[in-house]
Amino acid sequence: MNKEARLLCLSLAVLVIAALTACSHKPSYSEMDANRASGNQNQNQKQNQNQNSEGQANASTPSAVEPPPATQPAPAPPPAPAVKRPSFMDQAKGDIRDLPSYPRSYRVNIQVGPIQGVNTILLTLKTTDSMDKITAFYERVIKDNKWTVIDKIIDPEFSEWSLKKGEDSSAKVEVKKDQQTRAMNIMIVRGEKLEEPGK
């Protein structure tokens, strides 16, 4: 049994030594040559160049590598039409002429541009005034600017007016209480159909 134990220890020692010597050299990132792959590529390019020069010297022998067919660049897209500012926009204030911002509010956001054939302005405002003061202001503004009210909701937490003026103009005023800050968020959307090109 003593002989078997020695044989087992010896075979384990040989296995450990073999495993350690087999795994002793592990390449690290610092030892890697970043240009090595391009060296192979350059050798391939040299072979292709040699084949091309041989092909040029002997015109009857076709070259192994044919150049790709020439492609034409894609045509440039047509220039985008210039966006025309809406006629109802007050250029100096960045406001809507016939639906002004609530006087004791501050602007959070403004977006101007065409949406599905309608030149649009979206204003987002915020104020700490009460819903009663805000609704009284917009009731007067809507009447003074001769808007037709299509739909109206007046509530202590939420108020909304859907408006129309003529065939081409529409608007919406929405006032909503922010439940976390108790401030009032006012959103005004005003749109006007864009003129069709050629008219």
Write up what this structure looks like.
The chain has 199 residues and is of the alpha+beta class. Helices cover 29% and strands 29% of the residues. It is built from three helices and eight strands; from the N terminus they run ααββββαββββ. A six-stranded antiparallel beta sheet has the order 3-4-8-7-6-5, with helices on one face. The protein has a two-stranded antiparallel ribbon with strand order 1-2. Strand 5 and strand 6 form a beta hairpin.
Give structural attributes.
elongated; 3 helices; 199 residues; six-stranded antiparallel sheet; two-stranded antiparallel sheet; single chain; alpha+beta
Distance between the terminal alpha carbons, to the nearest Å? 109 Å
Largest sheet: 6 strands, antiparallel
Considering DSSP H and I runs of 4 or more, what fraction of the residues is helical?
25-40%
| Cα-atom radius of gyration | 39 Å
Strand order of the largest sheet: 3-4-8-7-6-5
Number of helices: 3
Estimated structural class: alpha+beta
Dominant shape: elongated
Low-confidence spans: none
Number of strands: 8
Mean pLDDT score: 77
- Provide the β-strand percentage band: 25-35%
Write the element-wise H/E pattern from the N-terminal end onward. HHEEEEHEEEE
Task: Lay out the secondary structure.
Elements: H1 2-22, H2 36-57, E1 89-90, E2 95-96, E3 106-115, E4 118-127, H3 131-144, E5 148-154, E6 158-165, E7 169-177, E8 184-193
Antiparallel strand pairs: 1-2, 3-4, 4-8, 5-6, 6-7, 7-8
